[in-house]
Amino acid sequence: MESTLDSVNRAEELANKLAAESGFDEDERHRIALAVREAAVNAVYHGNHYDPQKKITVGFESSGSALTVTIRDQGTGVVPEEVPDPLAPENLLRGSGRGIFLIRAFMDEVRFRTLDPGTEIILVKRRSAPPTASQNQTCRGPR
Q1: Among 17, 65, 83, 143, which is least packed, fewest CB within 10 Å?
Q2: Would you call 101 exposed, middle or buried from its count of C-beta atoms within 10 A (0-12, 13-18, 19+)?
Q3: DSSP-derived secondary structure for the chain
Q4: Per the structure, how many domains does the chain have?
Q5: Nearest Cα to 22, choosing from 88, 58, 69?
Q6: Residue 141 banded pLDDT, cuts 50, 70, 90
Q7: What end-to-end distance do the CA atoms of the chain give, in Å?
Q8: Nearest to 58 by CA among 99, 15, 112
Q9: Domain span at residue 135?
Q10: Residue 53: which CATH number?
């Protein structure tokens, strides 16, 4: 996908659609979609710096027990532990810096992997009840 806000919107829409098809309730779908939006914004803005030569890759996998979303950028990479704590007093009034915090709050598992170049973030949301057979599927977003 292009390094644009249109791609961020598309990733969020796909996440919401697949979460619905996977049987997540409305509240969980909203949390999943928001986490995917935040991760895609990070990839486009912080990772690729809106560089039209760089792409993001978004992949979705739905199984009977979880929805997994993978987002990759082609930027210089990020060290999540070095991202300022948005709850620290000096950061409370900042207009940005809460994306990773929200992603971790909304998803059951969040992993980062350093690529050459770029960063990959893997988001996992587990289901509380197994889905029907028609809810097991894999979807790869546009590249």
Answers
A1: 143
A2: middle
A3: -BSSHHHHHHHHHHHHHHHHHTT--HHHHHHHHHHHHHHHHIIIIIITTT-TT-B-EEEEEE-SSEEEEEEE--SS---GGGSPPTTSGGGTT-SS--HHHHHHHHSSEEEEEE-SSSEEEEEEEE-SSPPPGGG-EEEE---
A4: 1
A5: 69
A6: low
A7: 5
A8: 15
A9: 5-140
A10: 3.30.565.10
Sequence letter at residue 41: V
Give me 92's structure tokens. 């409370």
**Tokens linked to 16:** 């919401």
What's the pLDDT tens digit per position in 83-110? Answer: 767 677 776 767 666 889 999 999 999 9
CA distance linking residue 57 with residue 117, whole number of Å: 13
* Residue with the two structure tokens 């977003």: 141
